[in-house]
Write a structure and sequence with these properties.
Blueprint lengths: L19 H16 L6 E8 L5 E10 L2 E9 L8 H15 L4 E6 L3 H6 L3 E7 L6 E8 L8
Parallel strand pairs: 3-4
Antiparallel strand pairs: 1-2, 2-3, 4-6, 5-6
């Protein structure tokens, strides 16, 4: 392993303190600001709840640099196949269009076919992650589609 300059020390932490990720992000965002402009993300959350208020399906995402990144999509097992995932995806795309996004991207190892059926294309794969599966990175351009009426 290559040595560090004098006065610096490398530590390895299996459970870093809660502020560690924020420290990294601050440095990364400062670098990016000088290269591509400031980091000004906007969170997106969509929830479908039953009459008791329990979450039946939901989607979380992050809009940044004119793209929506879909972080997570959940549909309760009892509701799978009822079209709730399609409703969430369609609404997320509409929100992204309204925000001026060029496209949407995500990664998935379990629902690749679902996203492909909704017009998403694979732009990368990570084989054997998790073991025995292939994580696919998918995207859909929105700036080439007609606006929703």
């Amino acid at each position: 392993m290559q040595g560090l300059p004098e006065g610096l020390a490398l530590t390895v932490e299996s459970d870093p303190p809660s502020g560690f990720r924020a420290e990294l992000a601050a440095g990364i965002h400062a670098f990016h600001a000088g290269v591509i402009g400031p980091w000004a993300p906007r969170r997106l959350g969509l929830a479908i709840r039953d009459t008791a208020g329990a979450l039946t399906a939901g989607l979380s995402g992050l809009i940044a640099w004119d793209w929506l990144f879909i972080e997570a999509v959940f549909v309760a097992e009892a509701q799978r196949g009822a079209g709730l995932g399609a409703v969430l995806l369609s609404r997320a795309e509409a929100e992204a269009r309204a925000a001026g996004c060029r496209g949407v991207w995500l990664d998935s190892f379990a629902a690749r076919g679902f996203y492909e059926r909704h017009g998403y294309a694979v732009f990368g794969e990570l084989p054997d992650y998790p073991a025995g599966h292939c994580r696919a990175f998918l995207m859909k351009r929105l700036d080439r589609l007609p606006p929703l009426s």
